[in-house]
Each structure stands twice: as structure tokens, then as C-alpha cells.
Write a structure and sequence with these properties.
Blueprint lengths: L2 H14 L3 H5 L2 E9 L3 E4 H15 L4 E9 L3 E12 L4 E14 L2 E8 L2 H9 L1 H6 L3 H24 L5
Parallel strand pairs: 1-6
Antiparallel strand pairs: 1-2, 3-4, 4-5, 5-6
Helix pairs in contact: 3-6
Protein name: SnoaL-like domain-containing protein
InterPro entries: NTF2-like_dom_sf, SnoaL-like
Pfam families: SnoaL_2
Length: 163
């Protein structure tokens, strides 16, 4: 197994075990993360995102991954997250392809690709079905996740958690 395949495997095993500290130890400090729901985030915000998602997912969060591949510079994996979302506890099954760039034994860029309309139909119900494919809804989702992440970071500072 290529060392960068091992990094990806360690990342997703830690995700399966709800261990954000082990996940983020695979990242460089200046990590650039991007996906349709969060947009582009960097560094501490990317670290905090995994802590928040795992905390919010609780016992309902289940992760599966496969098709890990990597070379000296790039890698990818397919993964599926199953969890409940929002106050209505809607079941979401999100199929994702993660792509990675590596430098000095760390992930420096991580992009998750998934169908935001499919996600929004599951997570938001009828509203997601009607509007989930629009740029307006994508922006609204990114604004909501950005506010949630900012709030989470503020809360963690009050508990003196170090990212």
C-alpha cells in the first residue's frame, strides 16, 4: 500500500470511529477543504468542521469507504455517510468521492464531490426537492453551514479546545 493510501485509510477509519482528532492529524495545518455544502474553508475551520459533524452526527453517523487509491501527489476514495439531519431527523445517505493532494506526508487539499440536489432532497425534504438544484439554495446552504461552523468555533474557544 502506498503511504498516501494509508493516510486516506487512516482518515476514514478515524471518521468511522468518530475520532476527529485522528482525522485532522492527517491534515496539514493550512489544509484547504471544499465541498458543495461548506464551500471552500481552510485551516482551523476545516479542522473544526469534522469535530462539529461528528458531534452532531452522534451514534446515528455511520461511515463506509472504499476504492482508496493514491500516488506521491494525489489520491481519492469513495465514501458514504449515513446520518440524520435537522430537527426532523431526516435520514440522509450521502455518496461522496473525496479527492486529495499530499505534501510532506500530510493532506494539503481535500475536496469532496457529491450531488447537492440529492443531498438537499433528503436533508431538507420538499423544499430541497424544489430548490436544491438552484444556485440560490447552494448559497443558502453554504451560508447556513458557515454560520453553524462559526458558532461551533466560538463555543469551542469557550471550552479552550485546541484545533
Amino acid at each position: 500500500m502506498h503511504p498516501n493510501e494509508q493516510i486516506i485509510t487512516n482518515f476514514y477509519k478515524a471518521f468511522q470511529n468518530h475520532d476527529p482528532q485522528a482525522m485532522t492529524s492527517c491534515y496539514a495545518k493550512n489544509i484547504i477543504f471544499e465541498d458543495p455544502a461548506f464551500g471552500k474553508i481552510q485551516g482551523k475551520r476545516a479542522f473544526a468542521m469534522w469535530y462539529m459533524l461528528i458531534e452532531r452526527g452522534g451514534d446515528a453517523l455511520h461511515i463506509e469507504f472504499s476504492e482508496v487509491q493514491a500516488n506521491d501527489y494525489n489520491g481519492s476514495a469513495k465514501w458514504t455517510a449515513t446520518y440524520t439531519y435537522g430537527p426532523q431527523k431526516r435520514k440522509v445517505i450521502n455518496h461522496v468521492v473525496g479527492t486529495f493532494s499530499f505534501q510532506n506526508g500530510k493532506i494539503v487539499q481535500h475536496t469532496d464531490h457529491f450531488d447537492l440536489w440529492r443531498w438537499s432532497r433528503q436533508a431538507l425534504g420538499f423544499k430541497g426537492f424544489l430548490l436544491g438544484w438552484t444556485k440560490f439554495m447552494k448559497l443558502k446552504i453554504q451560508q447556513t453551514t458557515s454560520r453553524a461552523l462559526s458558532s461551533y468555533l466560538h463555543k469551542m474557544k469557550s471550552f479552550e479546545v485546541e484545533f
